[in-house]
Each structure stands twice: as C-alpha cells, then as structure tokens.
Design goal:
Elements: H1 14-22, H2 34-47, H3 55-76, H4 81-109, H5 113-128, H6 131-134, E1 136-141, E2 146-150, H7 154-161, H8 168-175, H9 177-180, E3 186-192, E4 201-207
Antiparallel strand pairs: 1-2, 2-4, 3-4
Helix pairs in contact: 1-2, 2-3, 3-4, 3-7, 4-5, 4-8
Amino acid sequence: MEEKNESSSVAIDPVSRVAPILEHLSPEDTEIDKGKIQDLFVKLWEFEEGDKLTPDEQHLTTIGLFIFATHNILDDYNIRKDKARQAIIEALRRWRAPLIEAEVEHEKSSGNPFQTFVATQQPKIDEIYTWRHFMLDHKQADGKEWTYKMKSCWFATFFIHLGRTDYIETACGFDKLPWEARQDYVDLKLNNLFMKLGNSCQFRYTPKK
C-alpha cells in the first residue's frame, strides 16, 4: 500500500487549528472557559513540535490534542468522563458535519449509495489513515462489503505517550462518525481491541438490510 506523499509541513497558527472545533463544544449544564482549552492545546502543540509534522500528522495531532486538552479541562470542572466524552465527540461531529453531509448527499443521489460510499471513501481512508501510522489493510472493498483491518493505531499510541489511555475510547468515537451519518444505508460491525490496549481494529461495512 502506498503512503500519502509527505510534503512539507503546513505552518498554521495552532489557535486557527483548534478554534473551528472548539466553537462547537457545548458541555451540558456547564459554562466553561474555552480559552483554557485553547491555551492548553497551544502549549501541547508546541511541545509536540506540531509545525514540524507532516500534514497527515498535523491533522491527527489536531484531533488528538483537542481530545486530550478538552478532557483535561472538563475534568477540572468536575464533569464526568462519560459526559465529557459525549461533548467532545459531539463537537467533532458538528465540526465534520458540512463535509460528511455533502458526502452523504452525493452517495444518496447515486444509483447505489453503498457502492458509492465504498468507492469514494476508500481513497480518503488511505490518505488519512496511512500505512505508517495505522498499518491498514483492505480485506474486501466492493458493492457487497468493505472490510479493513488496522494493526496499529496512531491515536492509541498518542494517548499512551501522553499517559491517558482512557482517552483512546473518545478517538474511537470520532472514527465512527462517518458511519453514524450513514446508518440508514450502511451497517457496521466493529471489532476494536485498541481501547483494551490490544493490537488490532477491524471495520466491516455492509449494505443496510
């Protein structure tokens, strides 16, 4: 499998990276100072030398640091972890919504929504979830089934590196967002061992029956 071409890093102000996600964060029944999350994100971005990373790593690091910083700050507000996870995933959902909704509209307008989903999303998956960071292998990809297995996970490695393996589950919730927007015509069977510090994760998509 070919990896995404590693072009030079993109120098974007870290605030500009997190702000579009942070604006959608709205924990239930709690007013928070989002500036604290932003400040922690910027500090961590600099610690991880984010400006020196490749574009695909910058994308993953933006999501990973948003999850990490937000969980930590919401914990300071005594917001339960499950409630924090729900708020974080919802913010990520709203951030991705314009893109995902456009994809869904395109798929539904085709003669075969599931087949179009597979054909258009497979190259995007390969671009974002590179072999180097996820060891992703497509087992089957056609109009009847799309199955791929990951033998590594950048997010799991990242949160282990930061000492918060309990945040891996939040990243897994983010990875399910594309399917959740397509539940009326796509079924998903997910076997995820990374949350239990295992060594694989398999997505199996089939047409909704």
